[in-house]
Amino acid sequence: MRYLLLLILSVCGVVNAEHHQEQKPVLSVSSPDQHIVLSFTDNDNVAQYQVSFNGKAVIEPSKLGFLFKTAVPMYRDFTISEVSRNQSDTSWEQPWGEQRVIRDQHNELVVKYTHITDSNNMFFVRARVFNDGIGFRYEVPGQGERAITRELTEFNFADSHLATAYWIPGQGRERYEYLYRTTPLQQVDKAHTPFTVAYQDGTHVAVHEAALVDYAGMSLQKQQLGVFTADLSPRADGIKVLKNDSFTTPWRTITIGDEAVDLINSFIALNLNEPSTLTDTSWINPGKYIGIWWGMHIDKYTWGSGDKHGATTQRTMDYMDFASQHGFDGVLVEGWNTGWDGNWIANSELFSFTQSYPDFDIDAVAKHSVKTGVKLIGHHETSGGITNYEAQMEDGFALYNKIGVEQIKTGYVAFGQNLKRRDAQGIMRYEFTDSQDVVNHFIHNVTTAAKYKLSINTHESVKDTGLRRTYPNWISRESARGQEYNSGWAPPNPPEHMPLLAFTRMLAGPMDFTPGIFNFDYERVHGGGPEWGDKPYTRPLSTLAQQLAQYVVVYSPIQMAADLPENYLAKSRPFQFIKDVPTDWETSIALQGEVGKFVVFARQEKAHRQYSGDDWYLGALTNEDERQITVPLTFLDKNSTYEAQIYRDGDKVDWQTNPYDMIIETKTVTAADTLKIRLAAAGGVAIRFKISHNQAN
Ligand code: NOJ
Ligand code: CA
After folding, report:
1. Which residues of the chain have pLDDT under 50?
2. What is the CATH number of the domain that holds 513?
């Protein structure tokens, strides 16, 4: 605008060209395909960046920098210079993942901002531009302690009045376990990332971060219409981040595409994380599990001791027998350890991670695990008691390691800024799930677990920022409203939740959503009340076919069959899909979708264990609108014929009154075919394309 004004004034002769301000440098770097341009400037000696896509602004000039408690602010009175440029096009392999081989193609620019009167005061911005978005991070040299009181990174969305945002509140009571909001971008106040934005012309943008290590998690705080700044979760002492000497920040990422699925098909965050710290990953095993779990959520069993105690020796052995008969790798057992009696959410200090309840004989369970070949999956609920857990962590890991456990599910049930950490003076401090110290706790947890060859599935975790690349034993996490909300202790997830998760939470990484509820008719123990609205359901608000589709749509290398064994035995035909579906993939493609409306995925199994690598799977699901999807099967191998085993919504299905009606059918298909499938309201489809003939052989 300012330049336009100057141009008009100078054309009119009002401003003489000689009196123009000195031309300030603009340092730009483009994506390899030239569609995205990221530029850095120092107009008015203020550090700024901007981003365009296909020649149109996406992020208008936005501030960079920091405020410190005592050090000189780092954003104003700085001038820019170029340090280096680089190009890179490499590929790397994931030990497990939604895709085995990941391509990292980007152009890099490093710029230096130097203080105009103090040449020793400087910071660098390292920027990488990919074909599907950008990432940049700060690299700040220096010595001594610095307390960051604000990170000033802005996100000034172009044409913000034309954009819709899909988001959950940042730094709230429920951590990341909120229902998503769909609002005009200008109505967002404070949002977590991944923060997804859609423009009317089809452009989609997601703001997130990569490699969140020794720093605080970033929310986006509205400053003015369409303009947000990084809002870091404060430490208990009110400071945002405390750093010693030189430091780098997590990457700030902006994924950009011209349709919604481009956001899903991007690997920017993984590419911006450091390579694996583990050279041997052979002990990290994707797979499927069942658990003594849903029974507690629907109040059939209890975590605590007593008549209804879920985690008994006999029940665990029965579950292991069921798991071995039906091809599951593990049995999760919650409530095996002391500390659950009374108000366990408030009594985090009482949890023991080594002491079992008397009716849970851990040695007998371990023996049965060896006999059946089914792993016990460990459980450490901390209720946010960080110090209590850290004091016992190694003992807990050693115990589990000794009895052959490979994976532990951890939990941090504590409301916002209520995680308890005792400081060096012995004073109890209350922390956010994504404050600097808790971020560091999670990394301490997974790196310590690695010493015991244990993988960690964190519930109520800090959001994922691609750290599974660096720490591949961080095998999954929750960090969103999962299936547990459909059990009756809270208003259930509405049908739009799944197609919202796919384009928001799932941009961060794997989610232990725990799909596969087969019986929707359990007794209503808690449900009802004003917050339920006029539909007091206490069950998944989906069709049964959609429960199957979720195994393909919601990626996780470990997937639970969440329901009670008897409910699977009662519906053995749909259960077959859960038994067949793999959890580790050669390739994944989000084929079609609109945020909050529907999504269609195709995934090719990875050759591993019982999987040949030839079969493909398709999962699609919709919100409360019924729709027809048309899917060309061009992803299939051109020289092969497949048997499509289709699990779809029946003609009489109704998610509110008759969720079970399902058609299971087979068809012979090739890559030349196109499938047309009706998804009922809140419905879905799950398909296994089983290779039946390969003409090349
Ligand atoms: C919340 C977790 O998300 C859930 O899966 C678990 O059962 C409970 N906490 C108890 O640890
Ligand atoms: Ca949870």
Report:
1. 1-21, 697
2. 3.20.20.70
